[in-house]
Amino acid sequence: MSLLTELYFLKDKLVTKPMAAFATGIGSQTKTVENIESILKAFNPKLIPGIVTSNEISDADLQLAGKLGEELAKTISNTVS
To answer: Nearest-CA neighbor of 67 among 46, 45, 51?
Structure first.
């Protein structure tokens, strides 16, 4: 089974859960994140905009990743409480 098929059976448990996508590498990372996000939308999550970095991760990329992690943690915290 594919990951998407396996996730389908958990769909009700994933609704409104915080999710984020990210990609790094050389090429079409932006399209990759967009594709991942479009798949995640099938589960009606609280989607946090993802990030894209090049193959060489910069300090700015690390800051973006840190902010994404903070936002994801904050969203999870708000969901639980």
So the answer is: 51
